[in-house]
Amino acid sequence: MASPTLICDTEPWKELRAHVEDINKTHLRDLMNDTSRCQSMMMDFDGILLDYSRQRATTGTLNKLFNLAEAARVKEKINRMFNGERINSTENRSVLHVALRAPRDAVINSDGKNVVPEVWQVLDKIRDFSERVRSGAWVGATGKTLKDVVAIGIGGSFLGPLFVHTALQTEAEAIECARGRQLRFLANVDPIDVARNITGLNPETTLVVVVSKTFTTAETMLNARTLREWISSALGPQAVAKHMVAVSTNLKLVEQFGIDPNNAFAFWDWVGGRYSVCSAVGVLPLSLQYGFPIVEKFLKGASSVDQHFYSAPFEKNVPVLLGLLSVWNVSFLGYSARAILPYSQALEKFAPHIQQVSMESNGKGVSIDGVPLPYETGEIDFGEPGTNGQHSFYQLIHQGRVIPCDFIGVVKSQQPVYLKDEVVSNHDELMSNFFAQPDALAYGKTPEQLQKENVAEHLVSHKTFSGNRPSLSILLPSLNAYNIGQLLAIYEHRVAVQGFVWGINSFDQWGVELGKSLASQVRKQLHASRKKGESVEGFNFSTKTLITTYLEASADVPSDPSTLLPKI
């Protein structure tokens, strides 16, 4: 049987490889002087303006990328995803996070069954439960209103919901809806994270949401048992059913844990963890904090982009354009990283979330058919809100290695500030930097310009900026729940497009398994050494030395400790 064709063996790929030589002869200073080119590289959709004119690309580059997308059958793969086909072939699953935010009357099938009614059944259950908790109809074991929520989950069960929560915290309508309430996220198994999350909380007014599809995730379940103990020690074991609920599909283990199965909220195998923020994973804790109507606007924003991604021609398709340009930067221009730079403090948790969405999805070394790849996939994602990042890592971006940048700006601030006699408002000051930085990266500054400014000769090379550093700009009209949903979906689909072109499975994550497996061996060793005094065996010299040093230095830990909870 002939081995499957890799995308790098196709003519469009080879044409793009040859095209790099042409691009290397140009500079963004010159490309930006072509007004018609710049106009063709700006587009708007549903209030969002995308400007990718500062990419090291011509209209010819784009045409070659569209040919590459055709060779990779990207449109066919998008259709297969929306049709519920099992495109996650290594786990034999559909990929239907788009169904999580589909309108109630939509039809999206998985295995011949429309899943949208099931989705809305869970959403309606969340709406009802969150309204009961928020109104005080559902109270804790001592009759007090549950005004504080701790959501326990890790990875996709944490990063996405935290991003949305952080983005909504300072939005005017969301503030009103959340008044008097708190939402915290417990992810790390580090006891310090437990301590920080329960500090200042009263078990009587706290509701804990345990998020684990299988109810077996090691870190999540240890944290869940810890908070169960915190509640039980203060209110008695019978209080658990009133103060803990679950997002899980394993109703048997939920019940064994002490949570009423009626208070378990389902999600499905066709929802990957990093794509699950629009499921009960995110919708339940966010609805408890802000109310379901706010969260529904977030879902509608994501759904708007879903429909755009599915139906718009590639030349006017925001996620497709972004995905193809990322492939161009990574696979042809050789840029291995990407900076996500939101000029909004409310988006401070956006880059960490996209870091997982992107790097867990596309950090693969074999094709979807298991063939080792002769090219790199994925990029190293990092970021920080502007202008903080400017005083941190922009030095490297401007004068060190080339890192393509995503600048994300917002027209209307969530919290405008105006001071009498100031030259500009605080938000205008922020946006001045948003508009300036892409041009600084694109144009740079030449030795000739510096000499005209009478810069000392020995400093000219130090103050020279090469420019020709690619970026793109995304301008949002505001940052409300709807816009946050739009932004999320744009990046989710962008990542999928990259994976579709590279011919990989962007929806599995086998790379996270090995470390967890080895950790279980260490866990058994620590138990045997603590409880039975057994020496450390079965590890290489380095690991054995580290574990032995750790055990010796923490010998004061009792072998059979009584329960101890954090005290801050």
TrEMBL record:
It is found in: Cytoplasm. This is Glucose-6-phosphate isomerase. GO terms for molecular function: carbohydrate derivative binding; glucose-6-phosphate isomerase activity; monosaccharide binding. It catalyses: alpha-D-glucose 6-phosphate = beta-D-fructose 6-phosphate. HAMAP family: G6P_isomerase. It comes from the Eukaryota. Keywords: Cytoplasm, Gluconeogenesis, Glycolysis, Isomerase. Its main location: cytoplasm. The keyword Isomerase applies. Homodimer. It comes from Nicotiana attenuata (Coyote tobacco). The lineage of its organism: Eukaryota, Viridiplantae, Streptophyta, Embryophyta, Tracheophyta.
